[in-house]
Amino acid sequence: MVNEFINKIREENKKIIVAGDGGVGRTTLLIRFTKNYFSSDTKMTLGIQFFTQSIDIKKKNINFVFWDFAGQERWRFFQSDFCKGADGAILAFDLTRPPSLLNIGAWVKILRSWNRDLPIILIGMKADLNNIIPDAYIPSLENYQFIDIIKVSCKTGENVQKTFQSLFSHILNIPSEKKLNIKYIDERTKKIERMLQVSNRIKLDMMRNALNMEKKAFDEKIFEWAEEFGFIIDEDILIVDKDTVSDYINKLDIMFETWEKSKTEKLS
C-alpha cells in the first residue's frame, strides 16, 4: 500500500537538476520558463534554490521540481549528494565566456554521481549576444553522452521552451515533436516553492518533538497525514499535493506553535 503510494508520487513528481558555473544564467532560465518573463536582475544562488512547474500529458498532471545548484566552487562539496533521485539535468554555460566551458566535465561527474546514465542537456546561454564561442569549442553529444545541445536566449526566449520540451520528452518517453501543455506557476505552487526552500527534515524533527512522540510512532503518523493531506516523504524531500498544501501549512504552523510554546515554558 505504502509502496504503491510512493510510486504514484514519483510518477507524478520529477526532479530536475540545473547546474553550471556562477553567472551563466541558470536562475534566469528557470524564471523565464516557470514564470514566463525575463529577469535581468537575479541574485547569486546560495547553496540551492527551487522552482516548480506543472505540465499536462496524457490527461495526467506532472509536477517538475527544479533544483538550481549554486555555481561557485565552494558549494561543490555537497552537491553530488543532492543528485540522488534526479530524473534529468540541464547543464548551462555562457556562450560569451569560454572559461565557463572548463568545468563541464566536473559538472557531469557531479550530476551522474548516483546515475551514470542520467539524461543531461547541455545549453549555451546568452545566444542573443555577440562574440559567442565558436561551435568547434563546444563539446559534442558524444563527449559526455548529452541527449541534446541547444543555444538559448532568455532575453528573447529563443529555444527556452525547446530545451525543456526536449528534456521532458526524453524523461517521459514521448515524441519530442508532441507539444506539451505547460501551466504557468500559480499561487498554490508558489507555496510549495517556499516550503521546499527550507529543510524539510528539520521541520519533521521539530514536529516530532512538538508532539513528544517516539520516532516509530511519528513515522506511522506521517503516513496517516499523507493520506489526509496528500503529501509524502521521498528520501529527505517533502512532496506535497498543491491542492491540499494550504491545509498542510496550517497543520504545520500549529505544530510549530506547540513546539515553540513548550520550549518557552521550559525556559521560564
Automatic annotation (TrEMBL):
<dbReference type="Pfam" id="PF00071">
    <property type="entry name" value="Ras"/>
</dbReference>
<dbReference type="GO" id="GO:0003924">
    <property type="term" value="F:GTPase activity"/>
</dbReference>
<dbReference type="InterPro" id="IPR005225">
    <property type="entry name" value="Small_GTP-bd"/>
</dbReference>
<protein>
    <recommendedName>
        <fullName>GTP-binding protein</fullName>
    </recommendedName>
</protein>
<keyword id="KW-0547">Nucleotide-binding</keyword>
<dbReference type="InterPro" id="IPR027417">
    <property type="entry name" value="P-loop_NTPase"/>
</dbReference>
<dbReference type="InterPro" id="IPR001806">
    <property type="entry name" value="Small_GTPase"/>
</dbReference>
<dbReference type="GO" id="GO:0005525">
    <property type="term" value="F:GTP binding"/>
</dbReference>
